[in-house]
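[Meeting: bench + compute handoff]

Bench side (C.D.) handed over the final construct sequence. Compute side (W.E.) agreed to return the predicted structure before the next meeting so the bench team could plan truncations. Sequence as handed over:
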Amino acid sequence: MTEIDFQPEKRTIEDLFVGADYYVIPRFQRPYSWDAANLDDFWRDVVYDNSVGYFIGPMVVWRDQDSPVRRLVDGQQRITTIAIMFAVLRDQFEALGEKNLAAGVHRYLEKADRNNEQRFTLQTEVDSRFLSQAILKNPPEKDVRPTTEEEEALSKALDAIRRRIADEVDQRQDPAIWLRELRDRLLGLRVIWIEHGNEDDAYVIFETLNSRGKDLEVVDLLKNLILNKLRGTSNSAADTARTTWDAMRNELEANDTRRRIDPNRFILHWWLSQEDYVAERKLFPAIKKSVKSKPLARTQLSSLAKDAPLYRAILEPSSRSWAMEEDDVRRSLDALSIFGIVQPAPLLLSLLRARESSPRLKIAPLKKTLQAIERFHFQHTIVSQLRSSGGVSEMYAKAARELFHAGDDQQQRGQVLTDIRSKLFDRRPDREQFILSFEERFFFTNDHSRDSKLVRYVLESFLRHAQPSTGTEFLTIEHILPQKELKQGVAFEAVAGIGNLLLVSEKLNTKLDDKDFAAKKHILASEGISYDIGGVLDKDVWGQAEVSQRARILAERAYDEVWKLPF
């Protein structure tokens, strides 16, 4: 490897902001993402715990020769936060009528270039109107609202810093003195400044400084790697690589109807679904070896973008429109989501990818394989509560990889899926072990509702198996022995246990209410016979013994029929 020559320098924030230089956050950098904890730590370090001249770490930049513009490779989170603090300081001085002090601070944020045109000291290659107009501009435009996830983070940081500084100002008779002290603390902050004229070398230095992963996650390193390979243009609207990356990230972010998905977990499962198995700590070095050229970077970026919505469909099946023939596919994915199982994710991603490809993976092996995964984890993980070894994760990753490399060969695809179903079948728990565990696994009352989704899933599965034409969407859980019996000393296991529970319509549940068993039996026999799973109507009395008997019946039916693993 060619030796990289660079000379680190000691600099202060005043050196960086007062000189003739401007700083640009490149398009391939991670967005501003400091949260309340990061801001708390920085505020405490700068304001309370350290004297003037506190060292805040290295910063890495690159620049073209004779250019006043430095592009930040490492340090953008810190320098952006400092710029926000300067902006809030300026606004506080203005509010106190300290016009000269306000102007003095603003010159750190905006200054004339060689052509005597005003430019902000901190800029972004990706347009951020909120940063420039709502924070840096003097006076700031109050009507500008954040429109992206990054701008939301900037807005939260701005509000948090405003609160902290306002709280300090309110406590002082002469707040201008404290504000000047804070200004001087910021200007006195020290960094190790590493500057290089070659962007690639600056990137290598950046990676080396972050090799221990103290600050950066895989998603940050991968963004730097791919977008650095796919250099954009000065026109952000034509920056297709950045646009594609942002679209992929947005697919993983939360909104009003969906939750956030960890991008690092997605990248790990994406990789394992097609490449050799690696531990998470070795993921980025493995990816980096595969992205050695611009075409390879473009291929990987395209793959990530296409797989992101598929990955969301795995974790949130409701995010996708499913064909009628895929109802069982969606149902199995819903079940795995309720279970909270992530080990099969690489294979699930590979399955949906094959379903989307041409020719499509046929529905029969897709449905059969997903049912095998669902039923295995219900038996093994949920009921028997057996711990899975690392071998299970590697088994899924191997099957995912083999399915990916099978391409459009339907016969080879089928063989891969037959093999994984066979392996799951061989790993299933012992029947008697499952039955004993099942009888003591599922409990539900209004006051003990932690597993309500899981209990409902179990009851729906029994009902769907016994009465396929009976809809389950609007059904509610009925306690045959009423919950009020708990206050009369009836055992919790008898009232809350699976053997005492039925799914019935809301209307029927209201009729059953807290009636005795004879009355409930009459109502069920006349209006709810289709809901009777496990022989409730065969009994003349109903107590703890009948609850235990029914739990055993359900457990046996679960292993032998409802959750029987398909080969």
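W.E. noted at the follow-up: Strands lie at 9-12, 22-25, 55-62, 69-74, 110-112, 118-120, 122-124, 190-196, 475-479, 501-505. C.D. will use this when planning the next construct.
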